[in-house]
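Journal club side-thread
Mid-discussion, someone asked how the predicted structure for our own chain would compare to the paper's figures. Pasting it here so we can look after the session.
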Amino acid sequence: MIFTRRTVANPVSFTGLGLHTGVPVELTIHPGENGIAFRYGSTRTEATPDNVTDTRRSTKLGEVGTIEHLMSALAGLEITDAEIELTAPEIPAMDGSSLPFCQGLRGVGMVELGEKELPSLYCRIFLQELPLKIAVGKGTGHWRYEYETGDRWPGSMHFESTSIIDAYETEIAPARTFVLTEELPMIEQYGLGKGLTRESVTILGEAGFDNEARFPDEPARHKLLDMLGDLYLSGIPARYLNVVGTRNGHTANVKMAAMMHQAVNTKKAGC
C-alpha cells in the first residue's frame, strides 16, 4: 500500500465551544511532517489508538476530547500530517458535523510531502461483541454503517458509500451528531452537549425527527462519519479499505483501530 502524504499549505483556525464542555476554544491546524498530533499546553499527543484515554460518548486523545469529527475530516480529505494546537482541551462543536472543518481545510489548500508505504491488509479483521460488529479488509473505499434501535424508531437505518473519499464532503461530512429524546434528561444531568444547539444536533423523536434533518438517514451517516474518524487513528487511508459497521460506537471503533494499527505496523498485515 503506497499512498501520498499531505498536510495543509498554511495554518487554519477554528473557534467555538467544546461540544460537551461548552468551554470556548480556538483550534489551529498547522502544517506538519510527523503524522497527526494534538498539542494542548506543553503536551503533544500523537493520534494513535494507544493514546486514546476515554471513549464514553466521544473519543478522547490524551487530554483532548471529542477528536472524532476533526479526525474524520482529515481522513476524508486524506490529510496525513498536521500539528493541531488547542487553547482548551476539547475540539469545538462547530455545527455538529465535520463540514466546517472540511471547508476551512479546503480554503487554505494542501501540499504533498512525498509517499509512504504500509503493508496491505490481506485478510478481513473482525470485531464482534454482539450486538455490535465491525469488519475491515483491504478494499477500494466501500464503507457501510448499519444503525439499529430495535423496536424504537427508526428501527433499522443504514448508509453506504462505494467511494468514501469521493462522497465524503457532500454525503457524509454534513451529517450532524444526534440524540434520542429520552437521552436528553441524562445529557443535561451529566453536563454533556453544552456546546450544541438545536440547530447543531439532530433530535430523534419517538416516531420521527423532532427538528429538521439534513438527510433522511442522517444518524447512519453521522455514525459512519464517527467510525471513519476513529478508524483513522490506525493511520490507514480510507480509500484502501472496505468497512462494515453494525451498532458500533467509539469504544469498538478504537479497539478496531488498534487491531488495524498493529497489523500494519508489526508487518503482520497478512493476518
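Post-session note: The mean pLDDT is 95.
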